[in-house]
Amino acid sequence: MNICVFLGSSLGKESIYAKIAFELGKQIAIKNHKLVYGGGGIGLMNELANGCLSAGGEVYGVITERLIDMEAGHEGIQELIIVKTMHERKKLMSEAADCFILLPGGVGSYEEIFEIMAWNQLKIINKPLYVLNTNGFYNSLKLFLEHAKDEGFFSGKTFEMFNLYDSIDDILSKIN
């Protein structure tokens, strides 16, 4: 399986975020999956890729020309594709992925996972997504999405796409 992970280019305040990102990358490799991610060499993105590489995994990154300097494209991965636009980046990552995992991150991570939800809802793709809820990071967002559903802005089926998981093992057992 090709697993696309969306996550922050920052480390966040708590060290648990970096530990979980590294461990997820490592477990992706151990389970003989391929990691697909945004190609960055800083923050949680760097930890994820390094975790995968530490266990002999294969890493495919996609980064824009503009971000190559900002996010210091990871130089140790097997394949780093450089594209012009964010739209190209997301398209290539989506095409390469069999499923998606969301870890803690910022606006870019939210935008990416919501686009995947929209594409699934519109039947542009049919690929599962999993939210690793490290340290309860996504509890409030889940409540907000439930409110939007309850107010009639999207269906229960769409809401169910945003399932929270407490551990890497929970997610990888669903993928396997």
Major beta sheet, specifics? 7 strands, parallel
Number of strands: 7
Element-by-element helix/strand order: EHEHEHEHEHEHHEH
Question: Average pLDDT across residues?
Answer: 95
How many domain modules?
A: 1
For the record, give the distance between the C-alpha atoms at the N and C termini, rounded to a whole number: 9 Å
Indicate the CATH topology. Answer: Rossmann fold
Short description, anyone?
The chain has 176 residues and is α/β, with parallel strands linked by helices.
Keywords:
8 helices; seven-stranded parallel beta sheet; globular
Overview of this structure, please?
The chain has 176 residues and is an alpha/beta fold. It has one domain (2-170): 3-Layer(aba) Sandwich (Rossmann fold). Helix content is 48%, strand content 18%. It contains 8 helices and 7 strands; from the N terminus they run βαβαβαβαβαβααβα. It has helices at 15-30, 43-54, 65-70, 86-96, 107-121, 139-150, 156-160, 168-175, and strands spanning 2-6, 34-37, 58-64, 79-83, 99-102, 129-132, 164-165. It has a 7-stranded parallel β-sheet, with helices on both faces. The longest helix is centred in the first third of the chain and has 16 residues, at 15-30. It starts with a strand and ends with a helix.
